[in-house]
Specification:
By secondary structure, this protein is α+β, with helices and mostly antiparallel strands. It has four helices and five strands.
């Protein structure tokens, strides 16, 4: 049977964990909060508020998004969220999850 643990100084490291996480154990997120915010700002220029928060501890796996835009007036919540996911469809492929909050501006 092959050894799946290697001695790394006083610690043992699993070969699988090294393969899974890369050599450093941490890779930068493919997309940042600013990248997502830029995409949303381009799609929703009338937006009063656009906030994007990485809620995965900085690894870029999960984001929380809030958008308040006049573009959402008269649309159901599902249609509002669909506009967000269509805008970020390329970035969403590399995420674990996404929380979306949308609303039209107050009257």
């Amino acid at each position: 049977m092959k050894r799946i643990f290697t001695q790394n100084g006083p610690k043992y490291t699993s070969l699988l964990s090294r393969m899974w996480s890369g050599s450093s154990g941490h890779s930068p997120p493919k997309y940042t909060e600013k990248d997502l915010q830029r995409s949303l700002s381009e799609k929703f220029p009338k937006a009063d508020v656009i906030t994007v928060t990485d809620i995965s501890g900085g690894c870029g796996a999960m984001y929380e998004i809030f958008v308040r835009s006049a573009d959402f007036k008269g649309l159901s919540t599902v249609k509002q969220h669909r506009l967000i996911t269509e805008t970020l469809k390329e970035q969403i492929r590399d995420m674990h999850g996404l929380r979306i909050h949308t609303e039209p501006p107050p009257k």
